[in-house]
């Protein structure tokens, strides 16, 4: 019996990969083997960097809060410790936004914590 090949599924798979490779440079966009490797690598980077992005933003928020509380004679760790002790439930994203865009509201929080 002759070998049966599902060329419809194969074509669909290749089409899907080539669509993802759209916009790549050189042979990465139109040569199947090169495009497949490039798309695989791109998806790995995308998965990894979705997690890395969260880390980078948390680090940025911490830097902004630290810069904001230094004006009032506190360090970041002292401020966060006192914030938790006073049971004020604000996350770092909100605190960083207040420190950057609403300094008077941030000062009120620092005064309450002190």
What would CATH call the homologous superfamily?
Answer: Ribosomal protein L20, C-terminal domain
Radius of gyration: 25 Å
CATH topology: c-terminal domain of poly(a) binding protein
- Give the amount of beta strand, in percent: under 5%
Q: Give the total of domains.
A: 1
| Biggest pleated-sheet summary | none
Task: Explain briefly what this protein structure is.
74% of the residues lie in helices and 0% in strands. By secondary structure, it is mainly α.
What does this structure look like?
By secondary structure, the chain is mainly alpha-helical. It has one domain (about 10-114): c-terminal domain of poly(a) binding protein, CATH 1.10.1900. It contains five helices and no strands. Helix 2 packs across helix 4 (about 90-100).
Topology, element by element:
Layout (H helix, E strand, L loop, with lengths): L6 H14 L11 H39 L5 H10 L6 H10 L1 H11 L1
Helix pairs in contact: 1-2, 2-4, 4-5
Keywords, please?
single chain, mainly alpha, 114 residues, c-terminal domain of poly(a) binding protein
């Amino acid at each position: 019996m002759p070998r049966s090949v599902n060329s419809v599924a194969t074509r669909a798979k290749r089409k899907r990969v080539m669509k993802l490779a759209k916009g790549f440079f050189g042979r990465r966009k139109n040569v199947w083997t090169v495009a497949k490797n490039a798309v695989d690598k791109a998806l790995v980077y995308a998965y990894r960097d979705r997690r890395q992005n969260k880390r980078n933003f948390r680090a940025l928020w911490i830097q902004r809060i630290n810069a904001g509380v230094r004006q009032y004679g506190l360090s970041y760790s002292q401020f966060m410790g006192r914030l938790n002790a006073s049971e004020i439930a604000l996350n770092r994203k909100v605190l960083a936004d207040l420190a950057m865009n609403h300094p008077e509201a941030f000062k009120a929080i620092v005064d309450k914590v002190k």
